[in-house]
Design brief:
The structure is a single chain. With 345 residues, this protein is an all-alpha fold. Among the domains are: 35-140, no CATH class; 146-210; 288-345, no CATH class. It contains 10 helices and 4 strands; from the N terminus they run αααββαααααααββ. The strands form 2 sheets. It has a two-stranded antiparallel ribbon. A two-stranded antiparallel ribbon has the order 3-4. Helix 4 packs across helix 6. The chain is extended and about 105 Å long. Mean pLDDT is 77; it is low at 14-25. Residues 267-288 are annotated as: Disordered.
Amino acid sequence: MITSQCQNQLISGLKHTQSSSHQQIRHFSRRRIAYPFYKAPKQGRQGKYEHKTQLRFQMECFLGKPNYKGEYLDNKYFKPSQNHKPKYILPVRERGNPLIDFETGKVKDHKGNLKDDVIPPTANYHDSLHPFPHNKNCKTNFILSHQDRSYIYQKITKDNVPTQQLAVQMGIKIPRLEAVVKLKEIEERWNKKNLVTQELKNMSNTMYKMFPLFNSNQHAENLTEIPVPERTLTSRFLTVAENEPFGPIEASKIYRLPLATDLLKNLDHDESTPSPKQQHYQKQHEPKILRTKSTKRGRSVFEFKQAKVGQVGFRYGTVLRDNKKDRRVDYDESGKMIYALPESG
């Protein structure tokens, strides 16, 4: 028969196991593998020495078969865009069909076979401007064409057209117009010095064809938007209690200014006196001087000394390794750090 004491122990043990199981469920990871939402090809049965995961197999299906150079020519995202239309991955539209034959333009499956019944997926112009399909607020900006940049530089520098008038005419903000003029001056300066190499030209042309072009009739910027300084975003009034002390130190912290005493100390210095920042740098990089006895060291490692009988040499079995970390260090006459020779007698 089970006594009442055994019953109490059994019930307490069950409670303990229930609490521990609940704790395991509570700390269980809720992360799940993000498999594709469309019907993706499955890996099937693997060989004995193949250990690919399902996600790696689907990644290889997405990339396609590489050539001898390791280039995935069948993938439509391999080459950069050349028609001023960005190439962003749109899984909702392509639905697992990113492979296209670069010669015929037809869709291919992950095995390399052509699909005659599948039309190559295309995206409209507005969807192609979003690098993240689910975030419509993130949008690719438009770049100015070569003709627009030359026109802006001609009007501002040579025709002396006011920047405000040109901004209203072209629908471009004033800071962007000033940046165009500055970059155009740098470009002409580099051309005179022959600093523009062929690699820079190729990269510039490739990047120029990847981004959409600006059109003043369709993509005019908001000129009424006024840039707000960062300091004006916070309140300019400070509420201080009556019993709270408020003096020059607190005021200097709020205005982010040094104290008057520090300013007066800096004013007393001459122009030849280094600034506190320079003094700190010099103090960190000044050579450290160490005074010690110099050890005369000849050309030979061994030297003969007068010794007494019974104290000559080292005890048999003593280790004389050269890579010991606790070896004594001396300095020669030039100040170079050397390891001290073992002494005997």
